[in-house]
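Here's a chain:
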Amino acid sequence: MPFDDQLRAETSALYTDLYQLTMLQAYWREGMNEPAVFDLFVRRLRDRNYLLACGLEQALEFLETLSFSDETLDYLSDQEQFEEAFLDWLADFEFTGDVYAMPEGTPVFPDEPIVEVVAPIGEAQLVETFLLNQITFQTTIASKASRVVEAAREGAEDRLVADFGMRRMHGTDAAMKGARAAFIAGVDATSNVAAGEAYDLPITGTMAHSYIEAHDSEMEAFRAFADLYPETILLVDTYDTVDGVQKVVDLMAQANDVDIRGIRLDSGDLGALAHESRRLLDEAGLQDVMIFASGGLDEYKIAALLDRGAPIDGFGVGTKMGTSADQPALDSAYKLSGYAGEPRMKLSAEKSNLPGRKQVVRQYEAGMAVRDVIATESEQISGAPLLERVMAGGERTEAGASRPLTALREHAAARRSELPERLRALPPDAPSHEVVLSDGLEARLHKTRAALEQEMAAEAS
């Protein structure tokens, strides 16, 4: 399926859970159409010191094009649980609400709204599934990729990081959106050609072991490939890695028109092999030939290699970044926090939420982020407000306009640089970023909880 057709299929109004549609019909039948407030947030962090918000663009695309086609309505009619009058009403359905959100690439912490939807309750309810799907996944991958980039750039800003994860990611949509999220987080290029076309990302890749094996000799394979791609990176570990590096040295000595850009190490003791490869290359006067490493890497393995002083100039990171293997899901939620002008909340143990509309304010000292304050929407709190109005009346605002991924990437790098070093380090046991509730939100929280408890007590009696 062409990518554009795939995108249209994925942004269908049917990209939702059934209970969103059954609730929508119930709201319609009961005449419940007052404005509601829903927050999309993450309850807690695990093995992360911060998250990097991502996926807003796809969320807004969905909201601004949301409608029910004739084919969609025919399908729902066949399910025999939706009234014809309701389906007639859906024929004119569109999203008319407001959306507030953190810009993509913004570091975010527990309980802070990444997205806040203010719309008639049925509209706000229906879009829960798609928003959670897109925001959660891309935030997961961006957060993992951010850690990989931080590890790779330690002590050297010019080390390259490439996304090699497509083949092991969970379907083509994950591979597309994952490449996008990783680029925003600072990854330099992707092996995913479709993502390169769709999002204008730099693409990278040269050869696999099968190309070497298909030739009668390793040198023959190197010579043929370098003849076609003179500035390529040659994979040297198909048979004997050190021997492979020596063949690259010999090839460059024999061929005046070949200027090999680098070698790739994909197996074995990458640290020891990088040291030996660098020695051989330098002794041959090939100091400009880079060493690129891949094979089961993540931020921890990259950090360990660099701690050993491995002279590696770039990393290809696949499965463990593309699936966020150590944390493949976030404890994300999309919860009602207001309806008909009144704050609402859950009281469930460990699954409560903050009532009413909110703003998140980041406070700084000496240019570094020291605290986030979750406040009510109208409080005046010193610092930088993070939630922007990206959609008004179902249409994008200037703040919600599509932005080049390079701009989002620059935003992510700038905001990440404001985090204290302890938060950008790999160990997750560093003192956490301080997130506090404002006086106004604390008062609203206690008042809402007390009113709910009083109501429950009255019902019980």
Notes: The mean pLDDT is 95. The longest strand covers residues 368-376.
